Amino acid sequence: MAALSCQFYCAIHRLHGNAKIRPSFSCSASAQPSQSNIKVVINGAAKEIGRAAVIAVTKARGMEVAGAVDSYFVGEDIGKVCDMAEPLEIPIMNDLTMVLGSISQLNETGVVVDFTEPSAVYDNIKQATAFGLKSVVYVPRIKLDTVTALSAFCEKASMVRAG
């Protein structure tokens, strides 16, 4: 039996006395937890925040960068793009579906960290969930209708399916 689950929550950030609500999502399709490192795919890897995430993941215990997706620097090593001392031997790809497919075949715990555009988030989360990976999303300027659609998707995906 596999469990599909998604969570929707709003994070409140205060800056100079102004409160901003930022919607956040966590979606997963999980089976047995893995004892190996969590495989992390950074979507939007060439952006400044994506490069910072790559560096943070490489320094974190229990995680490893398993894929880098972006439309810039395609084919270049993400370690070099991040100015790391050693290359990670992970080329930046421009096809999220291909990266998710290769990661899902490993049958290990995986997560997609998405720093893309508001118009792409819904489809990215659906793809990651379909491949059995969890999603963490940071996308400023996301529209309310996208938040509503993601909330509905997360609610539907939270059902347990026998398989």
Outline of the structure:
This protein has 163 residues and is α/β, with parallel strands linked by helices. It has helices at residues 48-59, 78-81, 96-104, 118-130, 144-157, and strands at residues 2-15, 18-30, 38-43, 63-69, 92-93, 110-114, 134-137, 160-161.
Structural class given helices, strands, pairing? alpha/beta
Count of strand segments: 8
Approximate helicity band: 25-40%
Q: What is the average of the pLDDT values?
A: 82
Estimate the strand proportion. 25-35%
Can you write the helix and strand succession as a string? EEEHEHEHEHEHE
The spatial strand order of the largest sheet comes to: 5-4-3-6-7-2-1-8
Q: Are there runs of 5+ residues with pLDDT below 50, and where? A: 1-5, 27-34
Q: Largest sheet, described in full? A: 8 strands, mixed
Radius of gyration: 16 Å
Instruction: Please tally the helical runs, counting DSSP H or I stretches of 4 or more residues.
Output: 5
Head-to-tail CA distance between termini: 5 Å
Please tell me what the overall shape is. globular
What does this structure look like?
By secondary structure, the protein is of the alpha/beta class. The protein is built from 5 helices and 8 strands. It is globular, with a radius of gyration of 16 Å. The N and C termini lie close together (5 Å).
Give the topology, please.
Blueprint: E1 2-15, E2 18-30, E3 38-43, H1 48-59, E4 63-69, H2 78-81, E5 92-93, H3 96-104, E6 110-114, H4 118-130, E7 134-137, H5 144-157, E8 160-161
Parallel strand pairs: 3-4, 3-6, 4-5, 6-7
Antiparallel strand pairs: 1-2, 1-8, 2-7
